[in-house]
Sequence to fold (288 residues):
Amino acid sequence: MMEDVRVLLASVYSPSIEILSTQSVGGGSINQTLLLTLSNGEKVFLKHNDHPPQDFFKREAAGLRLLGQSATGPRVPRPLAWQSRFLIMEFIQEQAPSADFYPDFGRALADMHRRTQDRYGLDHDNHIGSTPQKNTLEKDGLTFFRDHRLRFQQKLARDRGRLPKSLDLKLDSLFKKLDTILDLTGEQPALVHGDLWSGNYFCDASQRACIFDPAVHFGLRETDLAMMELFGQPPQTFYKAYQEAFPSPFGYSERREIYNLYHLLNHVNLFGSSYLSSVESTVNRFIR
Ligand code: ADP
Fold:
């Protein structure tokens, strides 16, 4: 594979480019990741996978490019080249965050979320982790989130034999009354990262937030805020700055639970039934 990587790098830089060293980078949950130091002094980041889903890295590159178009949004690594089994992108050095990092991140994310289009979804499907993500275009945010996010993951879990019948039926009841829980009045399709847990962002050397490994689409902007709270939580300074820049309507804490159900169901599909109890306790809160 490294010779294929070198050949692609030659098309980006120069035919004589060499890979001087490779260094493993931890933290990935789906792919293998390496820092490559090149003979021209550049450092690049390589993600690879021997058996990725079809178009996996092509879609990831498209997602990074789309997010990267927002000049005042968070920083996004620039994709350099890709083929079916790997993606090469700009390497970004991580640094410990200072006190200003989180409020700046909140404002930058709000700016990114202001990018809109006329419908929810995207002109192509992509992945969340290695799970397919449907981006079927819809006028209505509730229909988009219920059918192409929640019901899609529900069906996947059912088809994989991972969803007990009783929980499957409870999910059906919840989804039928979702319009009474998710009031999306005034919301517009927002450019979202789509998978913004704490492992998919960090602070760069100039204290700017850098986001990567996206599941990009035009969706409900609070889904990014909710995912940031699912495994860990950024400090209140982040939320305060975001809310000042782009206030959330009343009732976010209820919506957050529904939004994170998507990720919990995806975790059932990706990592197994240990996430079922979290799915069940969320569902029970709403169908009592
Ligand atoms: P996976 O798709 O396997 O989850 P990630 O894209 O999340 O892999 O990358 C794994 C880790 O590599 C991240 O948690 C982050 O620390 C680091 N990383 C990701 N992209 C870059 C980059 N462009 N430059 C430097 N480090 C990166």
About this structure: The chain has two domains: 2-90, 101-287. The domain at 101-287 is CATH 3.90.1200.10 (Aminoglycoside 3'-phosphotransferase; Chain: A, domain 2). The chain has nine helices and eleven strands. The pocket of adenosine-5'-diphosphate is lined by residues 25, 27-31, 33, 45, 47, 77, 89-92, 199-200, 202, 212-213 (CB under 6 Å).
